[in-house]
Amino acid sequence: MIELILHIIEIFLWILLATSGAYILFFALVSILWKKPVSPLSIYLEGQIRALREPRQYTFLVLYPAYNEDRVIINSVQTFLGQYYPYKGFHVAVISDHMQPETNQQLAQFPITLLQPVFEKSSKAKAMQYALQQIQGDYDYVVILDADNVVESDFLARLNDVCNKGYEAIQCHRCAKNSNNDIAVLDGVSEEINNTIFRKAHNRVGLSSALIGSGMCFRFKWFKENVYKLSTAGEDRELEALLLRQKIHIHYEPDIHVYDEKVSNKDNFQKQRLRWMTAQIQSLFSLLPYVPKALLDGNIDYIDKTLQQALIPRSMLIVLTFTLAVVVTLISREWCIKWWLLFLFICLSLYVSTPKQLRSHSVFGKILSIPSLVWKMILNILKIDRKNTDFIHTTHDHEEPKVGK
Length: 405
Description:
Distance between the termini: 69 Å
Order of helices and strands: HHEHEHEHEEHEHEHHEHHHHHHH
Mean pLDDT: 84
Low-confidence stretches: 399-405
Largest sheet: 8 strands, mixed
Number of strands: 8
Strand order of the largest sheet: 3-2-1-4-7-6-8-5
Radius of gyration: 22 Å
Strand content: 5-15%
């Protein structure tokens, strides 16, 4: 009787983990095997349409929500102002929240709009809402960047080309700008795996890309109408839900890079993952009530997004699968085969999803850091409060490079 109960529990756990593993494996294989079919006729017609329609030069409002970001914001803004794009074609606004007077004085010297709200409880959503209330004028698109984000000088020019294709929501390729220790390297690799599975592969099969929280671009009119609906610290997931409920496709642009600082210590890693896990749970519960309507409307994008929020985080998935494979092996060699196969497929999925330039011995040698990081993530589960909307800030530890060096 005891053996039967254990077997039922073991099968239930395997199905639970295998569901997340199968999702990741499918999109990992899509990223290398699926090439979206394009007919010669469609290429010809697209070329004719572009020839008839003269490319526009769009105007961009660039928002930097900056909470206690004194160390990085000056360099980020100064770098961005070096864009090879018409001066009247973009405007930068920094929402300075709890930053030092000295920082604000430096920012005030730049040709930007400096906003200094005072929030009882700070959040990125509140910062963006405040900016839209204060900034006058009309724009074609709004770009959201984090205070530590650095972009190349042709960022807006290349983004303008993508906007000319008619996309209303665009996620740029966010990638690591630092690799100063094992945690930063693993965080950067994790981001690239996300880019492969949840962005590139999704777009290849016609599904929307996931948003990241920065390096995002939206139609200004749409954003202004919807930004006031944001209420949690997971504003990117809320934006996704709003877009997908309105059946607006999210395009991923892999060739436009936004360099983002990766976390460099375990405390910041834990804070970051706690924020992400809390946002994931909040997003799942907010998405579920609309699933029946999405099924009736055939809104596959929305259903897929709901499934994403139910997935087990990858690092937890791989450690839990390996641990349970070892435990089940000690109980029964017959039961353990499916566990080791699942572990093998998960490893294969993550390897395939990792860009070739990151598949080095030095990178995979850092996986010894994963168990302790996963343990911190498991401890985070006890701290998750899905009703909590407080913003959890992570500080920056990497030394910021000087502009022009």
